[in-house]
Amino acid sequence: MPVISEFYGIKIMMYWNEHMPPHFHAEYGGQKILVDIVSGTILRGLFPFKQLKLVLAWCEIHRDDLLENWRRSAEQLTLNKIEPLM
User: Low-confidence residues of the chain, pLDDT below 70?
Assistant: First the structure.
């Protein structure tokens, strides 16, 4: 699964041709979550609170970039890297 961003030990990934709704995967310290891009809600999984806040803030900042990658994945194009949270 392509890593599209990494920050503070958190990896953000997106598969090609995934199921709806548009979402991304995040991993930190062996824990994984699925995040709905549009609503910024957790679809599945658990994360430590601090890292969860970082991921959700990053999602809000990069929502347009994430949706563009979702579109690209549906067309099986290379996914763009997205700036990490600084």
Answer: none
Asked if residue 43 lies in contact with residue 56, where contact means CB atoms within 8 angstroms, the answer is no
Asked if 68 contacts 80 with a C-beta cutoff of 8 angstroms, the reply is: yes
Considering the entire predicted model, what is its pTM? 0.93
**45 pairs with which residues across the strands?**
33
Neighbours of 17 (CB within 10 A): 8
Instruction: Give the strands of the sheet with 23-28, arranged side by side.
Output: 3-7, 10-13, 23-28, 31-36, 42-45
Residue 29: φ, ψ to 5°: 50, 40
